[in-house]
Amino acid sequence: MRFLWSESLLLLLILPVLAGVYVYTQRRRKRAALRYASLMLVREAILPGQWWRRHLPALLLGLAITCALLGAARPSIVMTLPNERQTVVLAIDVSRSMRATDIEPNRLVAAQNAVKAFVNELPPSVRVGLVTFAGTAAIVQTPTQNREDLLAAVDRFQLQRQTAIGSGLLAALSVLLPDADLAIGAEDFDWRASSGTPDVPRKLEPAAEFKPVAPGSHAAGVIVLMSDGRRTMGPDPLKIAKLAADRGVRVHTVGFGTREGGQVDFDGMSVYMQFDEAALRAVAGITEGQYFHAGSAGDLHKVYRDLTAKLVLERSETEVTAFFAAAAALLALMAVMLSALWFHRMS
Description:
Blueprint: E1 2-3, H1 14-35, H2 39-46, H3 51-72, E2 75-82, E3 87-93, H4 107-121, E4 127-133, E5 137-144, H5 147-155, H6 165-176, E6 221-227, H7 237-246, E7 250-256, E8 262-266, E9 269-273, H8 277-286, E10 291-294, H9 297-312, E11 313-319, H10 321-343
Parallel strand pairs: 3-4, 3-6, 6-7, 7-10
Antiparallel strand pairs: 1-2, 2-11, 4-5, 8-9
């Protein structure tokens, strides 16, 4: 438990003072009862079987004051609650390495089947968007609750040359936050092209003054990025991950394929392709997301099942001041009722 106004906890120091005042008044009351010749007062003061009745209303009132003071400090706890307003953007690598057969029947078909199962298992209230990336990124489906449109979009995956992980992440971020200023410059395109000549990036205007938020604090949406290769062009994915982290967006990453790599036929040549596990781990770490490795079709299905549970049930910090206020009111009411019932006066 955390207190948002922890300085208010100093008010709890008043409790020992109130306890001391109560003990003092009870001792004076007992001495007065013994001094006067009233048998009723004497019995009330010294009868052993009545002590709990005499002190219970005061104890309840003390607990009520304690709850009220704790509530004044605005307590909060981390709770796991269903998230019914979330948007999930899937960024899927469709580079030609997805033809590798180290995962049967090949990586592309296995990925398509896993994504379909993932979409079908999400609650109907969750919106899902779809981005694909290879040498460039494409928004295949804007966030929607229409599962048929999503499944049809998954079936339309087209393999392309190159791998621009940063472009895929940037496109997914723009889909999730369409109103955000995601300006990047030419210096962010520190590519290492393996073949071909990438287009010269357009220098964008500097972003307006922006105040970063805590990584992972954006509860309304999340990005799931899956790649089976290494970046060969496009912006640095770690710099794009920093953009996401500054806006509170959590990115979960999935490394797809065996760690040894898979054989792919490129223009009559057989090449072994490996995914960049270090980069995917770094992207997840920067954004407070989680990295998964899926070395088989079964692993990929399990990863998406685990992600379904994480996305549907969200851990968030919730203020529980109302609970303490209600407890204080209930305890105070009980103290008043018992005092009136037993002693015909307020405690």
